[in-house]
Design a protein that fits this description.
By secondary structure, this protein is α+β, with helices and mostly antiparallel strands. The chain is built from 27 helices and 40 strands. The chain binds zinc ion (ZN).
Length: about 900
């Protein structure tokens, strides 16, 4: 279908008054804009004819086979359009992880844009209706306009949507029609043409640079520097700067609709939109759930009316995890659109038969009857869906705005539970602080008690944090603090589970390791608002007396920010391997002990202030066994291309200042010289090491680091350990370590999902805090389990081995989320530490580093990687602090 035909069809399908008139461009030469919108430019704004068409500007029709526009041309085009159109505001919200511009286009009628501040203010009142009467809300709903946020390109290899935004921009800027007026008069469109510009640059530039070669055209590594495809699993932890900018836009404008534009596999329906499958999170307002279906079905109607076959809804995607949806806890529907992909990013998919499902169903009415599928078709489908979404909201703004008020009203009058209390003085101040920072980013109001108080039958000290739930975004806090009870959804009675689209639990107190109590009924205490989250105030002790030392407890995962600094400065750092007492206080095994030098004091003073982790002075160094960390411990990270877990671990390492490097193919010649400890995350396999990236498909200049190292490399990794190195493996990495050393463990979980199934839940666990790997852990800290492994030890004599973590011998194991067949876990082992030759190996069957979510457990990766290379000291040596 040609673009011209599409434009007419769309307008007709929208049932808007009038027929679309496409303004022909005047053929002005393409020229990048170099300045921001000026007064003079605004004067000339109405001259839409001066805006080059995408084809004129980019030199090809958008969606043409084998052509992708690149970000370095897209950004100037958006700037150019904004400089020439009075319907557009171009804004660079900030810089991405790799320093690219993150762009927001605000699009509406000139009149609305001139009145934008007032429109935002009206929308904010509806979002937070405290003090707003129903009559006032009706007036605002009658006079306001709805805000429709659309983003594309969060997943960079799903290229079609961000390409389509170029045509959306041109049309929205230039079309003179009643239809276009009906959209622009009634909506403010917030368009983020690419949610992950770094990835667009990596993927599209790579595609362009490999044209005419025999190399693969698809960028093979993570297309978000840290989280790759998981960049849309960050919507409650809010770790990445791109997430922050997106959330900042939502918090400022309070959109009613959030359209998140994706592509699915090539055999999926040509286009998926909501309605979703069950379940939905009960913390999403029912009005939001219903309105999601309204927009999704309007898109389906639009595409079918335009003659587009193969579209469907009610499959694959559910409405459960907040990791994929911030907006729904903030009053907006989430409209996921998933167009089927073509071939090699931008080439036609050609089949011998009509593509995809060929049977009709109520949610898949017209099967797709063609044998080809092109990028141009993706652009056409997603464009019709987008305009259909705009139409359905633009033609019904009163209901959208008044329902937005209703959603807000229900939120601010919530009575159960009344509040969550996060007690002051917890064992891990970093866990509390990380949580409060998430709430702060998520526009959740945080209060701090000014006096001790009683609530829910318990006493709480002054300084405790209180999250009252009768606030606009109380539902966001609630879903993150409560236990998830995922419904038992089977494909048919007695059959296998209906798999959730992602994971099933997000309980922050369990993931991070802190206490938060739900208080069912009201209580009173004087509070103050917490507007910026800071580290807990700590007081540095006086310098210890002669023979004494500084001591830092091992409980907080934030302690590794301190350790990184100590490592960096080469400050001698010891850990007591046993519990000890000093001056009537008990210090657990794993406590960090430092000689009282001026340099140590300086680091501890700065870092305790930054982290809120207290430092103590002890009067005498205890006579207990211990270790001295190796100064400048050399950490290696096994990171196969496009491996998400290693990307997330890089993020935490960078946050904490850990010095590490990626293990590259050339390093296998001298692993022992390069590394003291190597981390093997989930997803690292023998194949990813020995075969690696296929050297025939990727240019060596850029990718030789990821090429396979063959059996010789595999043997070198084995010898690295037996000669004294440390290997820390988790998730499927534990299976890789098992095969590397023939570890005597066997998986004990049934492969049959009707018997055992656990798709991302929190389970019971028993940890040994006297084992160096679990130093500082709560012995009952829950384990994150995401279709992972659980083992039984088949021999305790092959290698010296210790159990770090196991599942309880009885009980159903589930703490939050969904679990079928928990009894199969009873008594199984999870974390093990092994002596292999002169080396040290730690294996966890579960993913103790999952997207940085389970930071409470993730600490054990740090414990293990620094412990392995450390010098082991007798009690006498320790008492002399190693001298
Ligand atoms: Zn996607």
């Amino acid at each position: 279908m040609s673009r011209r035909t599409l434009l007419k069809t769309t307008a007709a399908a929208g049932a808007a008054a009038g027929v679309a008139t496409v303004v022909d461009p005047d053929g002005a030469a393409a020229a990048p804009a170099t300045t921001a919108k000026t007064g003079a430019a605004a004067q000339a704004a109405a001259k839409a004819g001066a805006i080059p068409t995408p084809e004129q500007y980019f030199g090809f029709q958008i969606g043409s086979d084998g052509h992708l526009a690149t970000w370095d041309k897209m950004v100037p085009y958006f700037q150019l359009v904004a400089s020439k159109s009075n319907r557009f505001v171009y804004e660079e919200v900030g810089k991405t992880t790799l320093g690219n511009p993150y762009v927001l286009l605000t699009i509406s009628s000139p009149k609305n844009l001139a009145n934008l501040d007032n429109l935002i203010a009206a929308n904010s009142k509806l979002a937070d209706p405290r003090g707003l009467s129903p009559t006032d809300a009706q007036t605002l709903a009658q006079t306001g306009v709805a805000f429709y946020y659309v983003q594309a390109g969060i997943h960079s290899t799903e290229v079609g949507n961000s390409q389509a935004t170029i045509e959306w921009v041109y049309r929205l800027a230039t079309e003179q029609s009643d239809y276009m007026s009906s959209l622009l008069d009634n909506l403010v469109i917030l368009m983020v043409p690419c949610q992950n510009p770094d990835g667009l640059v990596l993927v599209n530039d790579y595609f362009v640079s490999t044209a005419g070669t025999n190399y693969s055209r698809t960028y093979p590594d993570l297309y978000h520097h840290y989280c790759g495809h998981d960049d849309n699993r960050d919507w409650f932890m809010l770790t990445q700067v791109e997430s922050h900018m997106n959330v900042q836009i939502q918090n400022k404008y309070h959109p009613q609709v959030f359209q998140d534009s994706h592509q699915a596999g090539s055999s999926a329906p040509r286009m998926f939109t909501p309605p979703y499958l069950s379940p939905y999170d009960i913390n999403i307002d029912p009005i939001t759930v219903q309105q999601t279906d309204v927009v999704g079905l309007a898109m389906q109607r639009g595409m079918t009316a335009a003659g587009m076959k193969g579209v469907g809804w009610g499959a694959e995607y559910d409405y459960w995890t907040p990791s994929r949806q911030y907006c729904v806890y903030h009053g907006a529907v989430r409209i996921l659109t998933e167009a089927a992909s073509c071939s090699n990013l931008a080439y036609p998919l050609v089949s011998n038969n009509p593509i995809g499902q060929q049977t009709t169903d109520i949610n898949f009415i017209e099967p797709y009857d063609q044998k080809t599928w092109t990028l141009r078709q993706i652009v056409d489908y997603v464009s019709v869906a987008f305009y259909s979404g705009l139409e359905t909201v633009a033609h019904d703004t009163y209901n959208w705005l008044y329902n937005f008020y209703r959603i807000g009203t229900k939120a601010v009058t919530r009575t159960s539970p009344y509040a969550y209390v996060i007690p002051a003085g917890q064992r891990d101040p970093q866990a509390v602080r990380d949580t409060l920072e998430i709430f702060n980013l998520g526009a959740v109001e945080i209060k701090q008690a000014q006096a001790a108080f009683s609530a829910g039958g318990k006493q709480y000290p002054a300084g405790s944090y209180i999250i009252y739930l009768d606030q606009p975004y109380g539902g966001f806090a609630k879903t993150l603090l409560e236990v998830q009870d995922y419904p038992l959804l089977l494909q048919y009675p007695g059959g296998p589970p209906q798999t959730p689209y992602d994971v099933t639990a997000q309980t922050l107190p369990m993931l991070l390791g802190f206490q938060a109590d739900a208080i069912p009924s009201s209580f009173s205490v004087s509070t103050k608002a917490v507007s910026t989250v800071k580290a807990e105030p700590v007081t540095m002790p006086d310098a210890p007396a002669s023979g004494g030392a500084y001591a830092v407890g091992p409980e907080s995962y934030g302690v590794y920010q301190i350790v990184s600094k100590l490592q960096k400065q080469g400050i001698p750092t010891f850990r007591a391997a046993e519990q000890f007492t000093d001056g009537g206080r008990t210090f657990p095994a794993g406590t960090f002990v430092l000689p009282p030098t001026a340099a140590a004091r300086q680091v501890l003073q700065n870092q305790s202030k930054n982290t809120g982790i207290p430092v103590s002075a002890i009067g005498a160094v205890p006579a207990v066994s211990g270790v001295q960390l190796k100064a400048g411990t050399k950490i290696g990270l096994l990171k196969p291309p496009d491996n998400l877990p290693s990307g997330w671990l890089m993020y935490i390492f960078d946050q904490y200042g850990v010095k590490y490097s990626i293990v590259e193919a050339k390093d296998y010649k001298n692993l022992s010289g390069k590394f003291d400890a190597i981390v093997m995350p989930q997803g690292v396999s023998k194949n990813s090491i020995t075969n690696g990236l296929n050297a025939n498909n990727y240019p060596a200049d850029d990718w030789s680091w990821a090429f396979g190292v063959g059996d010789a490399g595999w043997t070198a990794l084995h010898d690295f350990v037996t000669n004294g190195g440390t290997l820390v493996a988790y998730g499927s990495g534990s299976t890789t370590a098992q095969s590397l050393f023939s570890l005597p463990i066997s998986s004990i979980l049934p492969n049959d999902s009707t018997k055992f199934y656990c798709p991302g839940s929190l389970l019971s666990q028993e940890l040994d805090p006297n084992n160096p790997v679990a130093w500082g852990m709560d012995p009952n800290h829950p384990v994150w389990f995401n279709e992972d492994r659980a083992y039984q030890l088949t021999s305790t004599t092959t290698y010296p081995v210790e159990v770090v973590a196991k599942y309880p011998d009885s009980g159903d194991q589930l703490q939050s989320g969904w679990l079928i067949g928990g009894q199969y876990l009873n008594g199984a082992v999870n974390g093990l530490s092994w002596t292999v030759g002169k080396g040290y190996v730690v294996t966890f069957g579960s993913e103790i580093g999952f997207r940085t979510w389970n930071r409470g457990e993730e600490k054990m990766i740090f414990n293990a990687m620094y412990y392995g290379p450390s010098a082991k000291l007798t009690a006498a040596q320790f008492q002399r602090l190693g001298q």
